[in-house]
Specification:
The chain has about 70 residues and is mostly beta strands. The chain has one helix at about 35-45; strands at about 5-15, 15-25, 25, 50-55, 60-70. A five-stranded antiparallel beta sheet has the order 3-2-1-5-4, covered by helices on one side. Strand 1 (about 5-15) and strand 2 form a beta hairpin. The protein is globular.
């Protein structure tokens, strides 16, 4: 049976600024050079991650991108 691993990228979208805030609950707030959301998505794609879902909460100003890739066998 194929196994999967997942990445959840939280992002905020105030005033058109789409910056990731965390990946699997690892916070980016302390980092100075946070990439724009499209650059992080492209980077994850190069690492084999596929965007499989988007969950947004417009009233709260944040959302999640959900990525998955096949889990490597040990």
């Amino acid at each position: 049976m194929k196994k999967w691993e997942y990445r959840f990228v939280r992002f905020d979208y105030f005033a058109g600024d789409l910056r990731p805030k965390s990946v699997n609950e690892k916070d980016f707030r302390d980092k100075q050079d946070i990439p724009p959301l499209h650059e992080l998505s492209n980077q994850l794609g190069q690492e084999g991650w596929e965007l499989t879902g988007v969950n947004s909460h417009p009233g709260y100003g944040y959302g999640f991108l959900i990525f998955k890739r096949p889990k490597e066998s040990l």
